[in-house]
């Protein structure tokens, strides 16, 4: 009877040994596959992160180039002799010599914007003392009228907008806002560059929009 128990014990021992080896044999491919999957997933995740970082750096570099181009043009405007005179002109009489002078200045302003590949035509030169806005081929001699009809920020009244635009002495951004731009609702982030003119320290502002339609 003792021998039978011993034999049964040995049989069970051998059985469990083979069972253990069989389970290990089954688990090894699973463990290997799981490790391979986790490694691949980690590599894929890192690749996505690296790709996103490269894209973000590219966008940042493009944006920096755009801002640098705006800064260069705005800085050139500060040394434009005609700007000093234009900044003192209030609403001129039709047919006067001032109208011709304003038109000539507007053409030169547009020409300064055109050569830059980084800069689009969405710019405005605002002159507070003259209450004038130069944009594209036009000039409006009434900032409140210009704001109401051509560039109306939904989040700001005219006076609030005026205080923001002319209340800073360093370049700054107006955060992305809903704007009624020439009758079209858009979302725009605005970059404002202060310009100081020579006569009496009067200030003008170069004003730029990057925009897309809602």
From TrEMBL:
Record key words, sorted: Membrane, Transmembrane, Transmembrane helix
Residue intervals passing through the bilayer: 14-38
Protein name: Sensor histidine kinase
Organism of origin: Thermoclostridium stercorarium (strain ATCC 35414 / DSM 8532 / NCIMB 11754)
């Amino acid at each position: 009877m003792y021998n039978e128990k011993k034999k049964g014990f040995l049989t069970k021992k051998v059985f469990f040994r083979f069972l253990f080896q069989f389970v290990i044999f089954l688990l090894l491919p699973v463990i290997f596959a799981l490790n391979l999957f986790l490694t691949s997933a980690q590599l894929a995740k890192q690749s996505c992160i690296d790709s996103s970082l490269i894209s973000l750096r590219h966008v940042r570099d493009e944006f920096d180039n755009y801002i640098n181009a705006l800064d260069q043009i705005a800085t050139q405007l500060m040394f434009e002799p005609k700007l000093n005179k234009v900044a003192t002109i209030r609403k001129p009489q039709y047919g006067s010599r001032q109208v011709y002078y304003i038109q000539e200045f507007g053409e030169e302003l547009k020409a300064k914007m055109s050569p830059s590949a980084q800069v689009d035509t969405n710019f405005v030169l605002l002159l507070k003392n003259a209450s004038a806005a130069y944009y594209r081929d036009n000039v409006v001699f009434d900032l409140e009228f210009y704001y109401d009809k051509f560039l109306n920020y939904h989040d700001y009244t005219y006076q609030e907008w005026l205080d923001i635009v002319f209340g800073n002495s360093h370049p700054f951004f107006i955060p992305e806002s809903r704007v009624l731009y020439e009758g079209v609702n858009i979302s725009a982030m605005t970059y404002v560059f202060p310009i100081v003119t020579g006569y009496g320290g009067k200030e003008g502002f170069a004003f730029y929009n990057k925009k897309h339609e809602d």
